[in-house]
Structures are given as C-alpha cells and as structure tokens.
Amino acid sequence: MMGGSKGASRGARSVVLLVVAALSAALLVGCGTSTEEAAPTVSVSRPAAPTGALAPALQAKLRAALDVTMKQYEVPGAAVGVWIPGQGSWTTAAGLADVTKKVPVTTSMSWPLRSVTKSYTVTLLLQLVDQGEVGLDDSLGKYVQGVTNGDEITLRQLANMSSGNADYVGEAFLKEFGKDPDKIFTLDELNAFVLNQPAQFAPGTRKVYTNADTNLLGAVIEQVTGQQFADVLSDRILAPVKLSGTHYLLDVTKWTAPHPTGYIQGDGGPEAQPDNLSIYGPSGSMVSTLDDARVWGTTLAEGLLLTPATQAQRERGAPLQVGPPYDIYALGMGRTDGWWGHNGEGLGFTAAVFHDPASGATIAVFMNVSNAPDKAHPADQTFRRFAEILKSEAAT
C-alpha cells in the first residue's frame, strides 16, 4: 500500500510496474483553434431502467455466479447490475469497500471506470466526425506533432488499436512517478513520454491495445474543440445524458463521493493501491456509479449519441492480437458474444459495462481488485457468467 509499510518496501516503481499495460500517453502540439463552445451532436434522453425486479430464481442464479467469482479471485467487494427490458432489474452490493475499516459496498458508490473511459473518448471523436470537424482517415500528424509515424497513423487506427504506437511507461515515466506518486499529471505531461519513441509496428499491420492511442485522441479532441477534455466530455455527453454521477477526475481529492479502496492480493492478503487517477488521462481517468453505467451501456451500444452511419462504422472491428479478450475490438468498444461494451482494469479495480442490442439487456460490474493471477479479469469474468445465464434462460 502506498504510504504504508508494505508500500514503502515495494516502492513506487513496483506499483507502477503492476499496471504497465494499463498506462499510456501522447502530447498535444499544434496551431490554435477557436475556443467557442460546441453544442452536443445529438440530443438524447437518459434511458430509463426496466420497471420491477427480475424473477427470484434468476436473481439467485446471478448471485451464485457473483459469489463464485468473488471467491475464485478473492474479490473484497463488488457492485453489480443486470437490467432486462420487460423482465425487470437486479442490482446488488457484496463484500467490503474498505477491508481495514470494514466498510460495506453499497450500490450507490462511485467507482473508477478505468478503460471504460476509452468508450467515452472515442464517442467524442465520433461526434466530431458527425459534425464534419474531423475524418476517421485523417492522419494524426494533422493535429498532433512529434509522434513516430504520425503522418501515417489515422484517427481510425488510434480508435481501433492498430496504430503501432509505443506505450509510454518507461524509465522516464517511472522516474517521474517515483519521485511523487501523488503527482497530478496533465494530458500534456503524460503524452510527452510517447513522443519520438520507436513504434511497435507499422500502422495498420497489427492490433495491439495501448492507452497511448486513446490519449492521443484526447489530444486531438482538445485541439479541434479548443476546450479541455473534461469540458468537452461534460458538454457533449455527461450533461445531455444526465450522467450526474460520472466525472473525469485527475485530482483524487475531488473524488468526494463515497467510493471503495482498490486492492491487489498480496502474500498477506489484500493490499491497498494508490489513488492517482491522473496517470490514465482520457484512456482511464473517469469515475461513475452503477446506475450511470447502466445508462452508458445502453447509450454506447445503441449509438444514441451518433448518427446510424457513424455507429455502423464504429462496429467494424477485428480481434486484438494483444489486449483484453473481446471477440472483436472496433472503435473504442469491444464485442463479446453479441454484447457490446468495454472493460477496464488498474490500480486495484476492475470494471465491465456491456449491452446486448438483441435483447436490450445491460450488465455492469464493478470490483475492487486487480492484477489477478494469469491476467484474469474478475469483472469481465462476472459479466461473461451473467451473460451465459441470461442466454440459457432465454433458450428455455
């Protein structure tokens, strides 16, 4: 735990290395743009939750799957929800938000979205596509200078993880973070670590998941709109969809809503992880609530903030060669057995938010543990088990 005896012995470098795969960056450089505030691309109402409760027998199956998963991965606490139109809703909290203080999880708590943030960032990009402000086949170099192969990398390749960009977590970042694990990194500061770094591969030749791609898109969004990323997000998504419990936070002291502590399982039991939201940027610095996750799952998968043509483009994808286990990864969202959404992990938390357009069902899972053995993802595993139960129920 950072700041505690175990954290002191491990040091900041070892903490960072636990989440190397979950960090990345890019730097905004370019000519000035108008600071005039843009209107949201689409007006949309907040989707309502299904009325009533799911059948008791179905709730029992879901709860059993949750209990098995929590035991398997030694998850301290979880908040989950399943919403099915015409059948009802089920939300529940399990375990502890804070192991030391014995604080139980509640369904109203705020949770880190981690990489679910990517789905918001790419949605902002696609709104700009709908407005004619950018094109998916524009080169990154048109907006951001200093990135290796920037004149060849397209915005589409950034969104679908085929750019070939290097991750930024190297000696320079480790040294900076190690000096002050509580340092609040700006997007520009994070992104500086990826400039002029060797590419992993030629653009478009592979699909390797890296946060650097999404943070570069955050830089593009700021460049095109002339606004800070947080303001663009609020104006174009959070306010229109009434996601009042969802925020882009860099300064953890502003995370004032009740929220869990994140853990990894150490030799002596759960070890608390540092609260530094800023190390992720537009690839993972958002927090949200269970009900807001329900709303976002529907909004994302149904394309409620985009034109149908752009949503159709969004759904074109292919399997990742390195990264989370989606069947395909498209533009800022993945598909698993027909369910569209995103998962996330890092610094003691895992999350999964998915929606099935065929049935209209949505599943959201938040858990306060990360870095499980064999790179298992407890929240994603819970989602998959829930989805299989719903599939079996529908077949009977």
From TrEMBL:
Residues 63-375 form the Beta-lactamase-related domain. It comes from the Bacteria. InterPro entries: AmpC-like (IPR050491), Beta-lactam-related (IPR001466), Beta-lactam/transpept-like (IPR012338). Pfam families: Beta-lactamase (PF00144). Signal peptide: none annotated. This is S12 family peptidase. It comes from Gordonia neofelifaecis NRRL B-59395.
